[in-house]
Write a structure and sequence with these properties.
mainly beta, twelve-stranded antiparallel sheet, five-stranded mixed sheet, 7 helices
Amino acid sequence: MRDVKGRGARSAALLISTMVSGSFGLGASAYAQEAAAPAELPPLEVTAQAKKKAAAAKKKAVTSPVPQAPPAVAETADTEPAGDADGGLSSNGGVDGYIATRSSTATKTDTPILDIPQSITVVTKEQAKDQGSRDMNKALTYVPGIVMGQGEGHRDAPTIRGVSTTADFFVDGVRDDVQYFRDLYNVDRVEVLKGPNAMIFGRGGGGGVINRVTKKADGERIYEATTTYGSFDTKRVEIDAGQAVTNDFAVRINGMYEDSGSYRDFVDLERYGINPKVTFRPSENTKVRLAYEYFSEDRTVDRGIPSNSLTGKPARTDESTFFGNPDESYMYFNGHTATATIEHKFDNGIEIKNHTQYGNYEKFYQNIYANSAWNGTPGGTIALGAYNQITDRETIFNQTDVTTKIIMGPAVRHTLLAGVEVGYQETDNQRDPNSGNYPITAVPFSDPLSSQVPAWGTTPGPFNKSDLSLVPDGYRRKPHAALLGFTHLIVQPCRRGLVAARGRGVQADRAAVVLCQLLEVVPAAVG
């Protein structure tokens, strides 16, 4: 090594001396003369190799970045929806593991979340799976701004940014205001939009909305079965199976069965669901999705423990204690939902999507529960209350969205959206008029279990009926302005005294359901 370094130094000194002589030709001649001497041949070889290696390294450093530059790929990522750029059956919504990069909840268009000026949190199926989430209560635990309530033991009841609600739920962008506990067995992700959202959803949602995006038959080959056995005799099994039958036809089925107990005595749960679905392409630019779901649930309704009137806090008792009569405290829910979605892309770039959802739901619940606070004394008693209610609901909603993209330059692109929603919802509701007033003997706080059975139905309550209609309203447009579809939200009770959601009288209301991002927007007056 020392000899090579010494020869390199002598070679470098020789080159410097020839350059200083002022004549390159003369230096080259002198260099050749020195090379002719046998003693000087090794330095010449070492110097030549060093030059070639340096030149090759310099050339490689200069030229290698050129073919690796990816401007074309970046441009495609901004302009094509994630997961469906090839027009195939797949559409992953920009989700990769825990990370979701795109959403259509806020804008009705497949938009990067970074470009949406609202707060959106996406709980992906991978995150929900790792959290052990089986329902909305668990899935939304780590979503900022949302606190899940007990919901009287028979429904999802979140508080979104301080606004309590039981109806601001959507599934695949369509309103899902039936009051029950939603399962995640067929859900790909949960998108939470926080803040006012009347631009798109048009009604309710003062604190935000929660949208479930269901799994699709996307052609992915998947055969998965998951079993769970845990504390309090929790037993659950899920299946997820699907594959592409042909290049243009795919099938998938999701199923679930659960039979579980609780840390509370006498409380149990049984529910099951099945959701087959198909996707096919009748033509190159047309995609059709069909799905049907049956979901059933039967559980004990648990209203929890009473408070201590002296402290204003929950009374100190064993957490497993049930207050009331568990045999007369239960709910059941049966739901049938069918959906059909048609998507078509025209040659001129305009895309149209039509989504229809039909649902038929039946729900009943009743409860005998602690209806007073404990006075804090060892011999104190707890008053009991009782109520029941049955609700039948039939809904049909149809949404049509038309989108197109306008490119006005290398850095200016617009997405135009126009849409309309029409629908009809019929609800039959009957609540026992004696709810909360049945004469039930108080029970001691130390032994609050009761076997009393109220005289259910001795005075049948009024059978209330309400119709909700969504009909398209007028619009106007201005030159170069976007078309906005408006709807009226009309609630028509069949008789006076209808008990409305949240315990208020039903009022007619109208709301703009569709709004979109555009060059210029001039909505029609809605008065």
